[in-house]
Specification:
Blueprint (H helix, E strand, L loop, with lengths): L5 H10 L4 E4 H7 L9 E5 L3 H13 L3 E2 L23 E5 L2 E5 L9 H4 L4 E5 L2 E5 L2 H11 L2 H20 L12
Parallel strand pairs: 1-7, 2-5
Antiparallel strand pairs: 1-2, 3-4, 4-5, 6-7
Length: 176
């Protein structure tokens, strides 16, 4: 079993200048949700140059496709052409599991997530993390038992965040 080191995995992708947004439970954890995860989900920018950088970064981590009905030593290595169709990929790397999800359900792709993403500093490297609202929307749309089980903690985290950072009141006071 590969040790999961999400911080180093994110730093590695950033070192290769891969453009991505962290989503899923890993994103929720980075935003302060009191939950855990054993994998990382990213939404990469869909551009050929980014696909090349992503493939290079993953090759350096000996990434392999996870195929559940085969022993791990028979999982095929990641190749650059794997990103040409931009299909979701479940991978195992030297730093742990990574899911590459080009278009998460209900929230769109990289360009849709980036405007609301939070910038999170991880050891001096700034990483884009999908907003908590986008993570919640995606989990609600997926509706899998593990996603539904995570929602109460995410709702509570959103409430705590809203209390800590209330929206400014933009109403115009009435004249005297």
């Amino acid at each position: 079993m590969t040790a999961f080191d999400p911080g180093r995995l994110l730093e590695h992708l950033a070192a290769y200048h891969v453009a991505f947004v962290v989503v899923g439970q890993g994103g929720a954890v980075l935003l302060g949700a009191p939950t855990t995860t054993m994998d990382l989900d990213i939404v990469p920018k869909r551009a050929i140059s980014n696909a090349e950088r992503l493939a290079d970064a993953l090759a350096a981590l000996h990434a392999r496709h996870v195929i559940t009905n085969r022993p791990a030593d028979q999982w095929p290595a990641v190749e650059e052409r794997d990103f040409l169709g931009w299909q979701p990929l479940s991978l195992m790397t030297d730093l742990g599991p990574l899911d590459v999800v080009p278009h998460p359900r209900a929230v769109g792709g990289y360009e849709d997530l980036l405007p609301n993403a939070k910038q999170v500093d991880i050891g001096g490297v700034v990483i884009a993390v999908a907003s908590l609202d986008d993570i919640i929307t995606s989990k609600e749309a997926l509706g899998r038992p593990k996603d539904l089980a995570a929602l109460p903690a995410l709702y509570e985290t959103r409430i705590r965040e809203q209390r800590a950072n209330p929206e400014p009141d933009h109403t115009t006071p009435e004249p005297d």
